[in-house]
Design brief:
The chain has 54 residues and is an all-alpha fold. The chain has 1 helix and no strands. This is Class III signal peptide.
Length: 54
């Protein structure tokens, strides 16, 4: 019985770890998309200002 309990505890820890990794990947992915969007906006604004000042 002890082996089964230990195996079940291991599987529960593994499941919790996988859920945590999934959440972290999702947050990082969202952050990268937001940063990319902001960089594009700033680059476009800088491009417009440079073209206006020519």
């Amino acid at each position: 019985m002890k082996r089964a309990q230990t195996a079940l505890e291991y599987l529960m820890l593994l499941a919790a770890t996988l859920v945590l990794v999934a959440v972290v990947v999702r947050v990082v992915s969202y952050s990268v998309r937001e940063i990319n969007s902001n960089v594009k906006e700033v680059a476009e604004q800088v491009r417009r200002e440079i073209l206006e000042n020519l």
